[in-house]
Amino acid sequence: MPAELNSHLPRGPAGAWRALKWSLKGIGICWRTEESFRLEGWLLLVFVPAGIWLAHDGIERAILLGSLAPVLAAELLNSAIEALIERYGAEHHEMAGRAKDMGSAAVFLLMMNVLLCWGLILIPRWLAH
Predict the structure, then answer these.
(1) 11-128 placed in CATH 1.10.10.10
(2) Which one of 75, 82, 86, 91 is the catalytic residue?
(3) In this predicted structure, what is the pLDDT of residue 7?
(4) Which of 63, 96, 102, 128 is most solvent-facing, going by the fewest CB within 10 Å?
């Protein structure tokens, strides 16, 4: 049955399980094929414990840790855009270049958000000492 015909139906546990498997498959593919995603993943493994340790309360913890995951999500989307563009050929096309640059810019903006969140919380604390 085409997806459009049953997309309004509840997924149920089996559908949720399939969606989880597809999501994990996508993360695995990105981990194996995208160096940037691996680097950001390793940084996440360092920054999560650091954020838990450095945060003074739940709000700070939510901001420090909550700023990290969107970077990986954007990297997944950027990698998906790049894979789709490469599927149609590696020759240069202005619109393909724009799409790739915009995806990269999204990742960059979220990385700057991490720096902003962490800086606004941690720098005043360090300056006070």
Answers:
(1) no
(2) 75
(3) 61
(4) 128
